[in-house]
Hints:
A: mainly alpha, ABC transporter involved in vitamin B12 uptake, BtuC, B: mainly alpha
Amino acid sequence: MKRSVWLLLIVALVVVYPLLFTTPFLQRLGALVLLYAIAASAWNIVGGYAGQVSVGHVVFFGCGAYASMAFFTHFGWPPIAAVPVGMMASMGIAALIGVPTLRLSGHYFSMATIAVAELARLIVTNVEALGAAVGLSGPVMPRTVFDLSFTSALPYYYLFLVVLLAVLGLTYWMENSRIGFYLRAIKDNERAARSLGVQAGRYKLYAYMISAGLTSIAGTLYATMYGFVDPDSGLGILTSVKILIMAALGGAGLLFGPLVGAAILVPLEEISNNLLGGKGAGLTFVVYGAIIMIIARFYPSGLLKLALDRLASTKPALSDQKVRDVA
Amino acid sequence: MSMSLLQVLIGGLLLGAVYALFSSGLTLIWGMMNVVNFAHGDFVMIAMYVAFMVWKVFGGGPFLAMPIAAMLLATLGIIAYFSLVRHVMKGPMLAQILGTFGLALLLRYGMFWTFGANFQSLPENLVGGTYDLWGIRIQASRLLAGTLAIVLTITLHLMLTRTSLGSKMLAVAEDSTAAQLMGIRPDRMQAIAWGLAAGLTGIAGALIATFFYISPTVGETLAIIAFVTVSLGGFGSITGALVAGLLIGVIESLSGYLIGAVYKDIVVYTIFIAVLWFRPQGLMGKN
């Protein structure tokens, strides 16, 4: 009861946020939080729920971003129309990485994700049709409303919010379906799960492919908003780092963990970039490295879990007490 | 075979020997404790900057840089083991991967912040000039790096297989509980392995810096090369790493020569994917 009230309050706050804070900077910040929350929530499906740590998720982000810009440049499609193309390419790449490595120990998977992301960056940098080192641009002027090219961040905010809710809805459904139970069993003890007949490799692959497809949507949305993608923004390792640190800091394997992580880190990064300028870029990632190490060493389950545990230990919920009394 | 092709082959072998040297540390750690050091390439990068500073401040060459870098990196490795790796290696997969990945970012962007993104390099004739043997031109810096790297990799293999310290380390790799019952301290052996592996990246970095570009992000490229080498050679196998390293060096140089310099990394990374698909246990590995 109490929990659903809190949830409603938070949802209401998220919905009215851009109407309360109307400056372009704050609206854009809100939109970026939601955009990274989409990507981090997608990462969470394979990194959090399936326990397979992808450190090269940017390759799927890049598929989405490059598909939309390339189909606009060569065929004049509205950028958003290339979503299915980006998703299919992403799921293909996910299968290329996942099929051989998800049978092996998790380290192979992580190494392969880094190598494939870097491979994709090198290839794209040398392909003229994909803009090589310069990158590709979207429509300069919106031709129709389907180009989704707006000057204000407000429409993007609500577009991203709808997509985020869809991604979270899908994750919630997965959590409570057969695949969610299988993934939890595999993460807890893969050998035990296998001995009970769970096809571990197959379900990890499903999770990875779903995660890849959803990440590519985030990439398309990113390219639509910025109207531009280049090898660094679309395929650089730093985007992978941002995606995974937001999920891991908030709480990998928790539904709202990635959103919490994005709500903390995106504003921090924007502020530090504004204060420190170009020099800040290096420093931001020094801090990110330190945060990642601290999470791994002390709080592998993330801040949201820590906060929830703290709340649960100080004030046991009324409903819990009743249950205990009855028992 | 034309002379220039032979020259490319020899250059590739000498470069590959250095790959083998720093990859052998990664394979040692993996084999002993089932942990992949994602910061391994960045250890080599730090050593390259040490070599750069040794030249800049003291005007010294690799013979001064090697011991300094080896000591510094071995210390870094042991600190990383005791403060980080020892704690995350028993934790969930997320912690195992992110621990050293975070360390990699910290080192990489720390150097980026201190030295900037610019590429540096050591003067070309720091280690003598270029030898001309019957029309084959070989840089002295590569000859020194390659020969020393092969000698050190073989020494590491002999140390592991022929000395009592090596036997203790292999015992921990085989079964750390059983080793502990025999009076071997797994914790100490693992710390020694981290010190050794990191120390070797120190020497490899000081050597490779004499003929390679130096930049904060070079560690990522070198890390992937080490992943390819180690998986091709078979995880845990030093001799596998030696053969695979030489092979990767030759393939990289040949593809750079035959297809074009920008494609050499693409070829090497593609080999990695092919190995994972068709021979995940590596050339020397057992199933």
